[in-house]
Amino acid sequence: MKRFFNPGFAVLILLMVFMSISGGRFSNPLDWLMRMLLSLPAIVIGLSFHEFGHAFAAYKLGDMTPKYQGRITLNPAAHIDPFGFLCLMIAGFGWGVPVQVDMRNFKNPRRDELIVSVAGVVMNLLIAIISAGILKLFYTFAPLFIGYSYMGSVVQQILISMILINLVLMIFNLLPIPPLDGFGIVTELFNLRNTELYYKIYDKGFLILMVLIVFNVTDLILTPLVNLSFSGIMSIFF
Length: 238
What we know:
Helix content is 72%, strand content 0%.
């Protein structure tokens, strides 16, 4: 996600909290807390690398804006958005602080904006693949540790969270709805930026996204795609 934060996301968070509570997500607070603690590394790394990917790509393509704003770093403090972080903790998907990009600094604006839009989700995919590879190394060279010890179980859960959460971030951000990266990708692929359709959808992007989340459409899309992606990545190593 590379657009400015919309204050309406606060409303979205409240809706997510209500849906999570009514759905029984917090029926066992201790269990929920433990799962969240094990997910924290994946959330912090996933959000930080995602936004770093946008910033680094824009910088390499000639836009100094991310550098001036201190975004060419993997330091989570530069990338974690409290609201996006809370959403990821509560609902399973979220966002970081949007990277601001000035397309006027690109030599080929349409191509370069497409690359910047893709860069974030590519980082999430790479983290998911690397995490699966590390898990495979544990199973190959330390099977007793990973399979029969408490600490090994914790490591295994953290690595699986790294895979799943990064896949959720990747697929959620690929939805072609503003302000998500997928909308930027579709915009540049089909050259929609100067069309009336682009501005109509862009202006209503938050409303569309909120409706899809409230009516569970995003979950219906994300769940099978995340499961399919997870199975695909695991089949590479196992």
